[in-house]
Amino acid sequence: MDVDIETIQKLMDKLIEFVIAYGFQILGALIFLFIGLKVAGWLGRKVFALCTRKKLDETLAKFIGNLVKLVLIGFVAIITLSNFGIDIAPLIALAGASAFGLTLAIQGPLSNYGAGLSIILSRPFIVGNTITVNDVSGVVEEVTLAHTVLVGEDGEKITIPNKQIVGEVIVNSHDYRIVETRIPVAQTTDMEQAITILRACLADHPDIAGDPAPQIGVHDFTYGGTILGLRYWVASKRYYQTRYKVNEELMASLQSQDINLLSVPGLALEAASLSADQEGR
Known about the structure:
This protein has 281 residues and is α+β, with helices and mostly antiparallel strands. It has helices at 2-53, 58-83, 88-105, 107-122, 191-202, 239-256, and strands at residues 130-133, 136-143, 147-151, 157-161, 170-174, 176-186, 215-222, 225-235. It folds into three domains: 2-105, Helix Hairpins (Orthogonal Bundle), CATH 1.10.287; 125-174, SH3 type barrels (Roll), CATH 2.30.30.60; 176-274, Alpha-Beta Plaits (2-Layer Sandwich), CATH 3.30.70.100. Strand 3 (147-151) and strand 4 (157-161) form a beta hairpin. The radius of gyration is 33 Å and the shape is rod-shaped.
């Protein structure tokens, strides 16, 4: 029992000596770490706010703000380790060797980060733009280093890895999306009258963009009739809603003037051949 008490007493003496010798150094290092992290976060937010006031793209502003924050955190960590009396040279060498091995192990995710950096710096699109990539369309909600998030018309979120974007054909229609429609009518139809009716239906329509103006004309010819083509721009967030509404109005306008769609008894026209959209191709 006396031996145990003596051992505990020695441990307490060692602990007290350690606290006296290094207590203030450790406390100072922890205080410096806490203040440094707070300053890094504050400065990162200030840089982001400054970039925003300069009307810099939101994604690029976030990237610059986070970069400043990470650099400061790195400096704070190095200084804190030095205050603890830890030699950081071996740690740097170990980090370099680990980074090399880690690069080989996670080269897939890293390629996303590289592609994300390319998107942020080159800015082929920004938040709020409507883009189409690999037959996927949506409004850009967020661009990070790893992925880009699009929002569809129904509110669904579409997450695309950035490596699937870089190197692909990107269609950026900004706030609008084009509607391309084909209407087959009989060969005996007065084309000038039909085009005039369709143009009047699209003119000054509240849901159709005026610039560029809608385009209407003879698109193609088919057995027993003619195909009229229409091209007009609508807001991306109401693409299908507007398209269906306009189609109903076009049909009603033609029927009110006794102009019917092409009807060829005994023959069938493939629906895809009458669609000008890129969907389903």
